[in-house]
Amino acid sequence: MFARSPVLNQSGPTEFVFRVFTAVPEFQALLFVLFLLLYLMILCGNTAIIWAVCTHSSLRTPMYFFLSNLSFIEISYTTVVVPLMLSNIFGARKPISLAGCGAQMFFFVTLGSADCFLLAIMAYDRYVAICHPLHYTLIMTQKLCIQMVGCAVGLALYLSLQLTSLIFTLPFCGHLREINHFLCDVPPVLRLACADIHVHQAVLYVVSILVLIVPFILISVSYVFITMAILRIRSAEGRHRAFSTCSSHLTVVLLQYGFCALVYLRPQSSSSVEEDRQFALIYTFVTPLLNPLIYTLRNKDVKVALKKAISSKGTAAAL
């Protein structure tokens, strides 16, 4: 299905090209339309969440503050990848410079890491809300919420800068190198280096543990306490509402952490290049799309806010 073309070995600055999905024009057009529609749905859905949270006072709580930040990160995250991917989908194979590839990797890793840290923060928020409801407003103050988001983004920036700068100190042999992927992700770029990469792989595993394993452990511990607290709720309706909110969050968590772990934490010898591309499609398109779908279709407050906004727009237009 995937087309391969020879790699040119010329003198000049190092540039990269992405491997095309397919050389069949009909499939190229189909993939372009599919990915474009998914991208537009991600933009519209996550923008709607941000707009609803910013314009409705009833949604100005820590949970929705974190949700709006997650939506902003999802928009930025997909925008770093999808437009460039769409521009190359018809097999034009436009070269990307070494600096351009490094910039894409830096922002991709930064936003992906911030996404994982923010999911852990959201789990802590749910833990406080369900296990310590009487102290929730005292603990989850606006100042603390802003500090936690700031720390998540700051740590993501630091880890991404260290990892990206380390990788791009490697020599890449040849003038035009083909990346067997649709973006400048860490594992496929590492495979193109013509030097020993054992230290770089070790650093990648350390960063992956900090970004994936540590937050996932914190989320798991939070949900153990949350489950115990929910089971003590006497009202069946209260238990159902609490489980519904938590199951939505867990769905996004399992998809995000699961597929990222398969790409970044597998031993390199057993890692399949084609599988990595398929898994990357999941966390590039599916999880950012699930975020607005899950939190709007299964969240009564957001649905009510969006309905009010739509009805008020319709009334204003009629006048």
Automatic annotation (TrEMBL):
Compartments where located: Cell membrane
Key words of the record: Cell membrane, G-protein coupled receptor, Membrane, Olfaction, Receptor, Sensory transduction, Transducer, Transmembrane, Transmembrane helix
Membrane-topology annotation of the record: Multi-pass membrane protein
MF terms (GO), sorted A to Z: G protein-coupled receptor activity; olfactory receptor activity
Domain G-protein coupled receptors family 1 profile, chain residue ranges per copy: 45-295
Membrane-spanning parts: 29-52, 64-86, 106-124, 144-161, 202-231, 243-265, 277-297
Major subcellular site: membrane
PROSITE patterns attached to this UniProt entry: G_PROTEIN_RECEP_F1_1 (PS00237), G_PROTEIN_RECEP_F1_2 (PS50262)
One GO cellular component, as annotated: plasma membrane
Pfam (any one): 7tm_4
Keyword Transmembrane (UniProt): yes
Gene3D superfamilies associated with the record: Rhodopsin 7-helix transmembrane proteins
Family: Belongs to the G-protein coupled receptor 1 family.
PANTHER family to which the protein is assigned, alphabetical: OLFACTORY RECEPTOR
Protein's name in the database: Olfactory receptor
Lineage: Eukaryota, Metazoa, Chordata, Craniata, Vertebrata
